[in-house]
Amino acid sequence: MKAHALKTELLNGESVFSKNTYDAVLFDLDGIITTTEKIHSACWKKTFDEFLRAWASKKGEDFVPFNETDDYLEYVDGKPRYEGVRGFLLARAIELPEGNTNSPPGEQSVFGLGNRKNQLFTETLEKDPPGIYQTSVALARYLKEAGFRLAVVSSSRNCRAVMKATGVENLFEVTVDGVTAAEKGLRGKPQPDTFIEAASALGTKPARSIVIEDAAAGVTAGASGAFGLVIGVARKQNEEELFSNGADMVVSDLGEFGLGA
Q: Do residues 23 and 149 touch, judged by C-beta distance below 8 A?
């Protein structure tokens, strides 16, 4: 396959990140720059397991827990919060009312579950701030010094708080997150709107921009937006999933490019 053949180019990171070809690099945050994907996964599991246990008891059915790897990657990873809730409930054939942004955390509604997850995430962020992937930050610094324009593109409404907590907020010129999407009416990943917004804010076009993502929804967004290069980072041994959803090349860590170390 062409996508797999591209992996051989990783031996020379300078040929991949070429200023002759690209102007900008757009990074996802969770799982790419920061280790927050681990917190997100744990908070989603607690949220859904609380609900599923109560739901199974009410219906007289067996409790089937949320799978932190498979369900996380399939239904919520990289997607806007409430879209993730809707997708998972649909997969379990569970119908709940929508609720609204003011629904109390834990209420049996789409917004109630999403708000519960956000409550857990915020509490965890305050108690135990996440770390960063050193090789990713090193690459970003290298690219910035080389003249690339950098942006973070995240579905999370907590994006800026996470960036501040991990000290990377000044590394990127532009941040497009869940708050930006809501304010500007942008569709979330897997639609390309937020990436296109970031490229535009950096003064360039998708064809001149590189997308770096660890989520299937993110690489799909990059591919459908006709971005110049879509790089997947398979931290959960999900290389084939990333390739099949539009990644042009896949690495297990950005340190494989050998830049900025």
A: yes
Among candidate residues 23, 30, 71, 193, the one labeled active-site is 30
User: Same structural domain for residues 22 and 150?
Assistant: yes
Among candidates 247, 192, 241, 220, which has minimal Cα distance to 74? 241
Of the candidates 68, 80, 88, which has an alpha carbon nearest to the alpha carbon of residue 159?
A: 80
Longest dimension (CA), the chain: 62
pLDDT tens track for 99-124? 999 999 999 999 999 999 999 999 99
In the residue annotation, 28 being an active-site residue is answered as yes
Q: Which of 28, 177, 214, 248 is catalytic?
A: 28
Type of residue found at 76: V
* 253 given a catalytic annotation: no
What are the tens digits of pLDDT across the range 158-187? 999 999 999 999 999 999 999 999 999 999
Using alpha carbons, select from 251, 217, 206 the residue that is nearest to residue 231. 251
Residue 14, domain CATH? 3.40.50.1000
State the pTM of this model. Answer: 0.84
Q: Which amino acid is at 34?
A: T
For residue 77, the SS3 value is coil
Domain end residue (candidates: 80, 100, 127): 127
Q: Report the distance separating Cα 113 and Cα 234, nearest Å.
A: 28
